[in-house]
């Protein structure tokens, strides 16, 4: 029942976007010294992504199956333009990636807070309180 509420779906999708972004950022940080590595980034969260997400459905053949991580399939990942390239061809900025990681953590926290407060509001509306 709660899975069909647009606010909860959007909050969950925002959290998934943050997860996918964090995965790409951690890959960039892990390759900070890899020669000729070009950093990647997940595209910004948009309303179009929400529409695309609602059109996609991931299924399993049995109830006991765990769904795979499809975050990378949903969110477009692209190579980003480098501000500075090191002599070995690597263009990862460790400071920049850490700052992006902080922003992504805030995005994830915001999504979880929205989700939790929405669930609390629904519980209060049916008389169960927190």
From TrEMBL:
<dbReference type="InterPro" id="IPR001444">
    <property type="entry name" value="Flag_bb_rod_N"/>
</dbReference>
<dbReference type="GO" id="GO:0009425">
    <property type="term" value="C:bacterial-type flagellum basal body"/>
</dbReference>
<feature type="domain" description="Flagellar basal body rod protein N-terminal">
    <location>
        <begin position="20"/>
        <end position="38"/>
    </location>
</feature>
<keyword id="KW-0969">Cilium</keyword>
<protein>
    <submittedName>
        <fullName>Flagellar basal-body rod protein FlgB</fullName>
    </submittedName>
</protein>
<keyword id="KW-0282">Flagellum</keyword>
<keyword id="KW-0966">Cell projection</keyword>
<dbReference type="Pfam" id="PF00460">
    <property type="entry name" value="Flg_bb_rod"/>
</dbReference>
């Amino acid at each position: 029942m709660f899975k069909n509420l647009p606010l909860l779906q959007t909050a969950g999708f925002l959290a998934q976007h943050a997860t996918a972004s964090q995965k790409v950022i951690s890959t960039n940080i892990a390759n900070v010294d890899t020669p000729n590595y070009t950093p990647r980034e997940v595209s910004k969260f948009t309303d179009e992504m929400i529409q695309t997400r609602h059109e996609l459905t991931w299924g399993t053949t049995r109830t006991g199956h765990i769904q795979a991580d499809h975050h990378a399939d949903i969110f477009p990942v692209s190579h980003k333009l480098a501000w500075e390239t090191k002599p070995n061809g690597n263009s990862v900025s460790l400071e920049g990636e850490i700052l992006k990681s902080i922003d992504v953590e805030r995005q994830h926290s915001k999504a979880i807070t929205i989700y939790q407060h929405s669930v609390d509001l629904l519980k209060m509306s049916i008389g169960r309180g927190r």
